[in-house]
Amino acid sequence: FDADRDAKKIHSACKGAGTDEKKIIEVLSSRTSEQRQQIKQKYKALYNKDMEEVLKGDLSGHFEKAVLALLDLPCEYEARELQKAMKGAGTDESLLIEILCTRNNKEIVNIKEAYKRLFDKDLVSDVKSDTSGSLQKILVTVLEATRDETQQVNSELAEQDATDLYKAGEGRWGTEELAFNVVLAKRSYSQLRATFQAYE
């Protein structure tokens, strides 16, 4: 890997009439996220321009979106997607769930920091203002980034959680959301699998 060579390839792909999209694909798709960050820095050092801005000017449509997404750190890309999901009228709740409920604690912290850096806003506050009810409560709990990340499974706890979930949900009219939040947002994924098996 040579960031200098790659930055020069991107520059030559955007130089003159027409853009050499194949060259852009060749460079960016064969590099890790960390390497692409180094290419961006090298491009800035060599040409005193942001590579993203140059590419925005030369590309369009879905290809432009894909290339710009490749240039983001994963946490930045996810922060942008979360912001889009909450922007304007209506909220893409499925996207909020997909991103926030599948990330580990460190990734959640990084996404929150990227969101603050990119939009000068607090992600938790935005989630609170764009969601409500049970979904809001569980997403805010997930955003605390305090999920147990051990791989050990406690069978007794799984049985107890399954019982608590049954009592809070199907076992009677109405639901006790706190029981669901604690189990779903705080337990490790291994522990959740054991709880779901015990619930069946």
Structure description:
The chain has 200 residues and is mainly alpha-helical. It has 3 domains: 3-70, Annexin V, domain 1; 74-144, Annexin (Annexin V, domain 1, Orthogonal Bundle); 155-199, Orthogonal Bundle (Annexin V, domain 1), CATH 1.10.220. The chain is built from 13 helices and no strands. The chain has helices spanning 3-14, 21-28, 33-47, 51-58, 61-71, 74-86, 93-100, 105-119, 123-130, 133-143, 155-168, 177-186, 189-199. The mean pLDDT is 86. InterPro entries: Annexin, Annexin_repeat, Annexin_repeat_CS, Annexin_sf.
List keywords for this structure.
elongated, 3 domains, Annexin V, domain 1, 72% helix
CATH architecture of the largest domain: Orthogonal Bundle
Strand content: under 5%
Tell me, what's the shape?
elongated
Number of helices: 13
C-alpha termini separation: 51 Å
Class computed from helices, strands and strand pairing: mainly alpha
InterPro entries: Annexin, Annexin_repeat, Annexin_repeat_CS, Annexin_sf
GO biological process, one term: calcium ion homeostasis
Organism: Tricholaema leucomelas (pied barbet)
Protein name: Annexin
